[in-house]
Write a structure and sequence with these properties.
The complex is a heterodimer of chains A (297) and B (285). Chain A has 297 residues and is mainly α. Chain A has a domain at 84-235: MetI-like fold (Orthogonal Bundle). Helices cover 78% and strands 0% of the residues of chain A. The relative contact order of chain A is 0.11. With 285 residues, chain B is mainly alpha-helical. Chain B has twelve helices and two strands, in the order αββααααααααααα. A two-stranded antiparallel sheet of chain B has the order 1-2. Chain B starts with a helix and ends in a 5-residue tail after the last helix. Classes of the chains: A mainly alpha (297), B mainly alpha (285). Chains A and B meet through α1, α2, α4, α5 and α6 of A and α1, α3, α4, α5 and α6 of B.
């Protein structure tokens, strides 16, 4: 916290010495920024780094890799499970959102109008409510199974068991797919009709228009959407906890909560947390750098 | 040639049919889970494997809203939790606006050394990209030391961090969208910086700032992970009561889920026109 403050003061001084005129503005900037930056450093950055540090401290208070040994010993299946469900859900959500985005961009009529309004609904629902919806919808005695039995697609005595990776992926895609559509369709709409017409005039079919024109021209938005959704899946706690908590395999977030609630074992919980950081690291760094650039312009 | 023409004529009908079938499928996937909690919230008796409940009524609603006090339903009055959530959210909105409007203004309009500005922006992006749960866990340990764990103040602070991250971004980009010439014009005819801000920039920024406030409000109402670690078992906000009802009482949990959605549905209409797509997805609970 003090480091940033000092930096700012040094910069203030330098600017002040140079022109004398800039100094009040810099001081003002410092005063205006201080509360927000202080809160984030104290309540976010400090615990963020504490989670790295804590992952190396064993229950006996010794430094070492003991916690990581527990994770690689017992939780690797869950780490892979988290990664697998995340990749799968992100993939499905991406395909779905690109298709729906293309449909919204290229189609007209009242159906398109209706879809363009309705698809937004899940975006405004929190994961905790989505979790409850999926619990009742996907349950063995839930509406989905009852309806599938009505049309004889399944035997009601033998309902689909969906409180596992399937239900998790379904809920993830249901909740965040529409958010991806929102991000992606905005980019599609920025693409001028003339590009699509030009592609058509040289004989491009729909598939070629999508893969050669629409997707490449909207690459940035699609990548940002993938990043945000991927990171939100890895870090999502409420939904997996309420849907598959207590079952195996579980997600990393469920394991962290168990480690804390049943064992008061913060070291292993932090080591698991570091695994989830690593899982998102590449995309997270891409996102941070990309967004920062965006705000400079 | 002839065949092709026939094919072409049929195409729109086939296309429309496919579109219609997909549309119905889309409606089913979209609304069935929502319909599921709506119907469970009024289902009193629903014996498996009947497709619809045998008895429908508002017993669980009345119980949750504190109108009746029936011990056999296993549902309690959730109005205290609702008002606790509401109160926390309002305080969080006030504090985060007081803090984020000046910060956003400074980041957008004042000269800040390039590197420092970059660092600050990264600071406010980290929570968006990295999983927050391990952070809340360590915040809990920190709060343990200073006696904030299990207090409303602790929960407010957690919600503040979550909300502030978005509030600073939204206010910064809101101020960015206002041309600096306007404020400069006001100052060139003698207005002070403060007066120029209050009379020119602030009114223009109002829609974005309102969107930011609404966003922070929803974020706080829905916050789950931070409250789970810092608040439980002493501070039970509405999402926490939903979580504890979820495993045992499907009707009661459905009622709470719908209650939780009411502010969301109201604000959805306000927020969606005002806000950039980027931020809306942050509502995650």
């Amino acid at each position: 916290m003090s480091k940033n403050k000092n930096d700012l003061q040094i910069n203030n001084n330098q600017a002040g010495q140079g022109t004398g005129k800039k100094s009040p503005a810099n001081l003002l900037a410092f005063i205006l920024l201080f509360p927000a930056v202080a809160i984030i450093i104290l309540l976010y950055v400090q615990p963020f780094f504490a989670s790295f540090w804590g992952s190396f401290v064993s229950k006996q208070g010794e430094l070492g890799f003991e916690n990581y040994a527990v994770v690689t010993d017992r939780y690797m299946q869950d780490v892979y499970f988290t990664f697998g469900v995340t990749v799968f859900s992100t993939l499905i959500a991406t395909i779905f959102s690109i298709l729906l985005g293309v449909y919204l961009r290229l189609s007209q009529g009242w159906l398109q109008q209706a879809v363009s309004v309705l698809y937004r609904l899940p975006i405004f629902l929190p994961f905790v409510v989505v979790a409850q919806m999926m619990r009742s919808f996907l349950a063995p005695h839930g509406i989905l199974n009852l309806l599938l039995a009505q049309v004889n697609l399944i035997d009601i005595e033998n309902p689909l068991q969906l409180f596992n990776w399937i239900g998790l992926s379904f809920g993830f895609v249901w909740k965040e797919g529409p958010f991806m559509v929102l991000l992606i369709v905005g980019g599609f709409q920025m693409i001028d009709n003339s590009y699509i017409e030009a592609a058509k005039s040289v004989g491009a079919n729909l598939y070629q228009i999508i893969t050669r024109v629409l997707i490449p021209m909207n690459k940035q938005n699609i990548l940002v959407a993938i990043t945000l959704v991927f990171c939100s899946y890895v870090g999502c706690f409420s939904f997996p906890y309420m849907l598959i908590g207590g079952k195996t395999p579980a997600t990393i977030t469920i394991d962290i909560a168990h480690r804390v609630n049943y064992f008061r074992d913060y070291g292993v919980a932090n080591a698991l947390g570091v695994f989830s950081y690593i899982m998102v690291s590449v995309l997270a760094i891409y996102y941070v750098l990309n967004m920062r650039k965006g705000l400079y312009e | 040639m002839n065949k092709k023409e026939v094919k072409k004529k049929n195409k729109p009908i086939v296309k429309k049919t496919i579109e219609m079938v997909l549309f119905i499928f889309f409606l089913f996937i979209l609304f069935a889970p929502i319909f599921s909690i709506l119907i469970w919230s009024v289902a009193i008796r629903w014996y498996w494997p009947n497709t619809m409940p045998q008895e429908i009524g508002f017993d669980y609603w009345l119980q949750a809203l504190g109108v009746t006090k029936n011990l056999t339903l296993g549902a309690v009055n959730v109005l205290p939790a609702f008002f606790l959530s509401l109160g926390i959210a309002i305080i969080v909105v006030i504090i985060s606006m007081l803090v984020s409007v000046p910060a956003g203004y400074a980041l957008s309009k004042l000269k800040i050394p390039h590197i420092l500005k970059g660092l600050i922006l990264i600071l406010f992006l980290l929570p968006r990209a990295f999983p927050q749960q391990p952070v809340f866990l360590n915040l809990m340990l920190l709060f343990n030391k200073v006696g904030l764990n299990g207090t409303v103040t602790g929960v407010i602070l957690v919600h503040l961090v979550v909300g502030l991250v978005y509030a600073v971004w939204i206010t910064t980009s809101t101020f960015n969208s206002i041309p600096p010439e306007l404020e400069e014009a006001a100052r060139s005819i003698g207005a002070s910086r403060g007066r120029a801000f209050l009379k020119v920039t602030l009114p223009l920024a109002a829609p974005g700032l309102i969107a930011s406030a609404v966003f922070v409000f929803l974020q706080s109402m829905f916050e789950f992970t931070g409250t789970f670690f810092v608040g439980l078992p002493f501070v039970t906000t509405l999402p926490m009561t939903l979580y504890s009802a979820s495993g045992s009482n499907i009707q009661f949990a459905s009622v709470i889920a719908i209650l939780l959605l009411i502010p969301s549905i109201i604000f959805m209409f306000i927020i969606q026109k005002l806000l950039k797509a980027e931020y809306i997805g942050g509502i995650s609970g």
